[in-house]
Amino acid sequence: MLELRRRLLKGGLSAAAITPWLGGGLLVPTTVLAAEWQKPAFAARTINDALKAYGSTSAAESRDIVISAPEIAENGAKVEVEVRCNIPNTRSLAIFADKNPMPLCSAIEFSGPALPYVREQLKLSETTRIRVVAKTGDGKSHVAFREIKVTLGGCGG
Amino acid sequence: MADPIKIRAQIQGDVTDIRVLMQHPMETGQRKDDKGQTLPAHFIQTFTVSLNGKPIIDGQLNTSISRNPLFTFQARGIKAGDRLSVTWTDNAGETRQDDITVA
């Protein structure tokens, strides 16, 4: 009986020793490291709701966010947008298309040796203004805009 | 089973261009088929780019990213022999991981 109790105590102890490691994320496989998808921000139907959910309603306009995109896009299903941020300590870049059914297109976080730069292809439903929100390490948001004319909408594509 | 992710790293001095092509339909949930039935949304929600096992880029996407998303990123100080890996997960819970050794 004593022997059993001993073993139980031992077993219990080792389980308790492991648990904090699990909580600390040290034993979690790399595949689940990505932050959870921010549903409220992505599912928001208007640009104001999306900005609010993303937590960047009070962004200062900045010339240090450089957006390269075509002035006129013939096919809204594939519009290439390039963003480079020259603000020091930029942690993330989010791209919004004001008039898309769901304005937030992507939110990308950078760390370590990654530079705050991205080139990606968006679907644009109609002629719209693109806005890029850059968040820096001190919690501030910066924003830049760019107008893109779309001749053929990309919602069907 | 999802199609493989294509990853290219091009070292240009200190800065390396990382190109990632994730093969995915990126269905918006707004398109209709021939019978007028709405096709359900099916799109990549999150992806991670890791360098030698350490995440350096973490992205979240919406349906408004084009089909077969192609991304270009940049990072400093990548050397030949480094491992680059990309993982994505879509809204159906499907996931795919691929990696390359930088040449």
From TrEMBL, chain B:
- Coiled-coil stretches are none
What InterPro entries would the database entry show? Ig-like_fold (IPR013783), Ig_E-set (IPR014756), SoxZ (IPR030995), SoxZ_dom (IPR014880)
Q: Can you give the residue ranges of the Sulphur oxidation protein SoxZ domain?
A: 8-99
Q: Which residues form the signal peptide?
A: none
Q: What Pfam families does UniProt report for this protein, alphabetically?
A: SoxZ
NCBIfam families noted in UniProt: SoxZ_true
User: What is the name listed in the Swiss-Prot or TrEMBL entry for this protein?
Assistant: Thiosulfate oxidation carrier complex protein SoxZ
Natural source organism: Dechloromonas agitata
